[in-house]
Amino acid sequence: MTTHTEQQSTADLVRHMSEQVSTLVREELELARIEMVEKGKRAGIGAGLFGAAGTLALYGLGALFFTVGALLALVMPAWVAALIVTVLLFGSAGVAALIGKNEVAKAMPPEPEAAMASGKRDVETVKEAIREGRT
Q1: What residue intervals traverse the membrane (predicted)?
Q2: Relative to the CA of 90, which of 7, 25, 50, 59 has its CA 20 to 30 Å away?
Q3: b or e along 63-99 (b: 16 or more beta carbons within 10 Å of the residue's beta carbon)?
Q4: Structural domain contains residue 7
Q5: What is the pLDDT of residues 111-129, one digit of tens each?
Q6: Residue 27, SS3?
Q7: What local confidence, expressed as pLDDT, does residue 98 receive?
Q8: Which class for 103: exposed (0-12), middle (13-18), buried (19 or more C-beta within 10 A)?
């Protein structure tokens, strides 16, 4: 195969360009897959650590709420103190759920930014080459 485009037929040039574009698309898809796998691993590790932290914090909060209830029980009946603590807990849980829902909605969908940027650069390079009349 010659390297000079003047000596190649249009069919050869189109076939060669088709092969290159096909290879380029496969490589971009592989880059996107690799990037998403890496991000998935990091997200999994982070989620596991957050889960462990949340579990420990839950036990600590349980102890704190028991302490608050015991302190309130010194000045009122124990059932009223327990009811106050329970209502405050459920109210806090509702607020946290709403905030969490909004944060998750902002984060979706995850995108492979590096692969997308690379693909855009490739498209621009091909467009520029076509404008200049080379392949």
Answers
A1: 43-72, 78-99
A2: 50
A3: eeeeeebeebeeeeeeeebbeebeeeeeeeeeeeeee
A4: no
A5: 777 778 888 888 888 888 8
A6: helix
A7: 92
A8: exposed
CA 78 to CA 71: how far, in whole Å?
Answer: 10
Q: Does residue 126 fall inside a structural domain?
A: yes
Amino acid at 31: L
Residue type, 19: E
Band of the pLDDT at 4, cuts 50, 70, 90? low
* Global confidence as pTM: 0.42
Task: Tokens 């971009």: give the residue.
Answer: 28
Angstrom distance (rounded) from CA 21 to CA 10: 16
Q: How many of the other CB atoms lie within 10 Å of CB of 112?
A: 20
Per-residue pLDDT at 121: 87
Tell me if 19 is assigned to some domain: yes
**Is there a domain that residue 89 lies in?**
yes
Domain of 54? 12-132
